[in-house]
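User: I'm putting together a small comparison set for a docking exercise, and I want a reference complex before I start. The sequence is below, and the ligand is uracil. Could you produce the 3D structure with the ligand included, as structure tokens?
Assistant: Of course. I'll restate your input first, then give the structure tokens for the complex.
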Amino acid sequence: MRVYDLIEKKKHGKALEQQEINELIQAYTAGKIPDYQMSAFLMAVYFRGMTDKETFDLTGAMECSGDRISPDTFGPRSVDKHSTGGVGDKTTLIVAPIVAAAGGIVAKMSGRGLGHTGGTVDKLESFPGFRTSLSPDDFANQVQKHGIAVIGQSADLAPADKKLYALRDVTATVDSIPLIASSIMCKKLAAGTRSIVLDVKCGAGAFMQTPEAARELAQLMVRIGQAHHRHTAAIISNMDIPLGHAVGNILEVKEAIEVLRGKGPQDLREVCLQLATLMIALSLQKEQDEAATLARDILDSGHAYEKFCQWIAAQGGDVSFARDPEKFPKAAHSAALCAPCDGYMLSCNAGAIGNAATLLGAGRATKDAAIDHTAGIVLLKKPGDAVVKGETVAQLYTSQEELLSPAAIRIEEALTYTAERPLTQKLIYDILI
Ligand code: URA
């Protein structure tokens, strides 16, 4: 194989053979192809795209580039969920125990926060003692005993993707649908579950800004999963507005516990129930109606909450915080943001809110920076809600007082108001199964 020839072929829009893709990925992972040639190849893919067959092959090549868990390890009821990244997205904390309590096997590897979007691993680390890194044996034992374990992604999982993603990040080639789809799906395939449910976020706080682009990505990821013999389904959900009211690690954990205890925001509950329905339908081979009833009953009966407490304890977390969320530490500093007029909130830009929460300390400024688990924002009003001039619409939290004003300016810019009650936005645009 001459890399030059593969770049040339893709530059002219021709499809690569599976063997060519395999050799390219193996050689790049082994450090035998320089970044400048791989960058040229990625840019050719960006402009010329890939056929489905090429995308399936690229996903498979990246899946096989490092450690893999065999789909036989956790059996037919094993199921994973992936969100393409959102603001206020604490769904895994709610969905995973619902599905495990229903009899599904949730063996999940999750990420840390990236850019303005939060990560499940950071949220779970809000519990004192919670271990997000388990040995393969401990991971397997916990899954077998409790039907649920969520850990950070192992460094050896799909190393080709790790290298390629870092290169895409600095060569303006992230936003290519076949590259995004193969990057996400290679890690899901390598994680070894038989079923995969995807939550493709769409809007101002998401990678995909329009329902059309989100649908294209979701459909391609479902086809990749199916081509690799995994039951795969997806929802496309709204990320113009943050999900729920809380943005920031401890704040989100507390909100998730509220939902698990039968309260909490309706939008969060609805997205969680839809995701749980699909995960139960795929992993336990049930009709969607039956799966939906089961998911709701498990949540409303408190079984999901009990499973959540079991899960936190199994991974070394101090479960007394799940029983009494008031025990979580509170931010040292707080400020209220007030409505500038009477009327209704019209919009609440999720991307800008995510950036403001990051600024307050809830996310990382650099890859290895520490985060402030107490920091974040609680949105007391959301689009469609009536507001009275001077009423608090958002409460900001941080350990660093000097961050309150710059974050407040960003939040003010993220919120717009109108005199007339606005139309309700759709929460779930589509379900692909
Ligand atoms: N998340 C990933 O894992 N890969 C992408 O390319 C984009 C988002």
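Residues 33 and 283 are 40 Å apart (CA to CA). The mean pLDDT is 96.
User: Thanks, that's exactly what I needed.
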